[in-house]
Specification:
This protein is mostly helical and 245 residues long. It has 9 helices and 2 strands, in the order ααααβααβααα. This is Ceroid-lipofuscinosis neuronal protein 6.
C-alpha cells in the first residue's frame, strides 16, 4: 500500500510478505523461549506439534494473504464474498471461481485455525505459570505499562482480521477463571501475567469500540451476517478507504 508498486511487482513477494516470512520464523522461536520460562508447560512432544502447526498455518496464511492483497490492485473488494466480486464473476471458465474459493478457505479458515489455536494455547499455558504469593511481584514496570497499548492493538488486529473472536474470548474467560481460582489460594498475577491480562482486557474494549463504530454499516453487515459481527480491517479498507489511496 505504501511503497511504490515498481519496487515490488505483483509477480514477486511484497515488503509485507518479507515481514510475514520473518514473523513465521521469529514468532515460533519466541514462543519456544516463552514456554521454556514457564514453570508449567505441556509435554515436550505436544509443544513441538503445536509449534509445527503454528508454522504451517502461518505459512498457509502467508501465501493466501499475499495473493489476496495483490488482487486489490485488480479491483478485488474484501468487503464482498469471493463470488460477489466483479473481477471474479467474469472469470472463464467458471471453475476458476472454485479455485479462488479454495484459496480463500486455506487463507481464512484452515490457515487461521492452524495458526491461532496453538498460539493462544501456548499463551494460556504460559499464563498459568504467572502467579506468585509475593504481592510486591505483582507490579508492572513503567516500560511494561507503555507496551500494553501496542500489545493490545496487536491482539485487536489478530482477532478482527483473523476472525477468531470465539477463540480469543474463550481464552480470556479461561484466564479470568484461573485468576479467581488462584486468588482463593492466596496467589496473585506477577508482572508478566498482569501484562498479558491487561492486554486482553484492553483488546476487548478495542473490539467493542470497533464493532460499535461500524454497527450500522449495511454493506459490512451483509458480509458478516452471523450473530457475532466483527468486521475485518481489510474489508473496511477496501470499502471506505481504497478510493482515497
Amino acid at each position: 500500500i505504501i511503497l511504490p508498486l515498481e519496487w515490488f511487482p505483483l509477480n514477486k513477494p511484497s515488503a509485507g510478505d518479507y515481514f510475514h516470512m520473518a514473523y513465521n520464523v521469529i514468532t515460533p522461536f519466541l514462543l519456544l523461549k516463552l514456554i521454556e520460562r514457564s514453570p508449567k508447560t505441556l509435554p515436550r512432544s505436544m509443544i513441538y506439534v503445536s509449534i509445527i502447526m503454528f508454522v504451517m498455518g502461518a505459512s498457509i496464511h502467508l501465501v493466501g494473504d499475499s495473493v489476496n492483497h495483490r488482487l486489490i490492485f485488480s479491483g478485488y473488494q474484501h468487503h464482498l464474498s469471493v463470488r460477489e466480486n466483479p473481477i471474479i464473476k467474469n472469470l472463464k471458465p467458471e471453475t476458476l471461481i472454485d479455485s479462488f474459493e479454495l484459496l480463500y478457505y486455506y487463507d481464512e479458515y484452515l490457515g487461521h485455525s492452524m495458526w491461532y489455536i496453538p498460539f493462544f494455547l501456548i499463551l494460556f499455558i504460559y499464563f498459568t505459570g504467572c502467579f506468585t504469593p509475593v504481592a510486591e511481584e505483582s507490579r508492572m514496570p513503567v516500560a511494561a505499562l507503555l507496551l500494553v497499548g501496542p500489545s493490545s492493538l496487536y491482539y485487536w488486529y489478530l482477532v478482527t482480521e483473523g476472525q477468531i473472536f470465539i477463540l480469543y474470548i474463550f481464552t480470556f474467560f479461561a484466564m479470568m477463571a484461573l485468576v479467581m481460582h488462584q486468588k482463593r489460594k492466596g496467589l496473585v498475577l506477577d508482572s508478566n501475567g498482569l501484562f498479558l491480562f491487561y492486554s486482553f482486557i484492553i483488546t476487548l474494549l478495542l473490539i467493542a469500540g470497533w464493532v460499535a463504530w461500524l454497527w450500522n454499516d449495511k454493506i459490512l453487515r451483509k458480509k458478516y451476517p452471523g450473530v457475532i459481527y466483527i468486521p475485518e480491517p481489510w474489508a473496511f479498507y477496501t470499502l471506505h478507504m481504497n478510493n482515497l489511496h
